Amino acid sequence: MNRPRTLVPHRYLAIGGRGPEDVVADTRGRVVTGVEDGRILRLDRLADPDRARVTVLAETGGRPLGLELLTDDTLLVCDAELGLLRVDLTDGTVRILADSVAGEPLRFASNVVALSDGSICFTVSSRRYGLEQWIGELTEHTGTGRLLRLAPGADSPEVLLEGLEFANGLAAGADESFLVVAETGACRLTRYWLTGPKAGRAEPFVEYLPGMPDNLWRGAPDGPLWVALAGPRVPPLDLLHRASPAVRRAAARVAVRAPYRPTGTIGVLAVDDTGAIVHHLTRRRSRFRMVTSVCEAAGHLVLGSIWEHGIALCEPPAPK
């Protein structure tokens, strides 16, 4: 891995809501995000942050996490409480596409990507812990994360891959021959093949990441895949993951009750479709904490966070 470069902040922008967990850019350089109280927001005029405008587009009634824009007016939402949603951004209409898997309620849906054949793939971080107890999943290391697919016209999703360690961000390869899944609990990216001789199989894509990967975002099809690092690696946690299940369960019971504050070390990566890291930006002692998403918009690298009450606008890296 190349030596990391400094992540340079330009501006913090308050948005009138807590926890913009995922940020995605539309074709006009605007950013769409979801916040803790269920609102979907559009952030406009980011090229001139002094004139930035926040517009409420919809309310899911749950807790929106990962987002995928189908068009500038249609949005897919992974809602941690309600499941997989489709939102009309012109009138705020919310439609539930899937809220169960084989009769099991769909909870903690995390991130989503739409494919050109009309299918929708999305992740579930945990079948044991909900969003409010996410740290229990990372501590116990249950491996109950899933990758799901909702086929065109289907009423219920199918399971493509199980046993993932806190399945989180999701993105497709440029040619849609594979998907990349962020496994937050394992500090790695995993590739799941959709086509070709390896179709239906999973393999490591990028291992031993310097932090815990969260949401993934790709702009142009030929652009890099951006990876938000929600926090640095925690050596004691790596050690705990090698302990017995009983020890991990006991530690998880303590973790979900303990107060939590993110570290001041933040970072983002960009990788290409071979898994090579083309950018690694990091900052220590950052006042903006727990970066859970990243996208490029209006000349900025835009950071989202499930912890903060706004977004961070940073200097984008020079092209390689």
From TrEMBL:
Q: Taxonomic lineage per UniProt?
A: Bacteria, Bacillati, Actinomycetota, Actinomycetes, Kitasatosporales
**Per the similarity annotation, which family is this?**
Belongs to the strictosidine synthase family.
Q: Which UniProt keywords apply?
A: Glycoprotein, Phosphoprotein
Which InterPro entries does the record associate with it?
Answer: 6-blade_b-propeller_TolB-like, Strictosidine_synth_cons-reg
Domain Strictosidine synthase conserved region, first and last residues per copy: 116-196
* SUPFAM superfamilies (alphabetical): Calcium-dependent phosphotriesterase (SSF63829)
- Name of the protein in its database record: Strictosidine synthase
**What Pfam families does this protein map onto?**
SSL_N, Str_synth
An example Gene Ontology molecular-function term: hydrolase activity
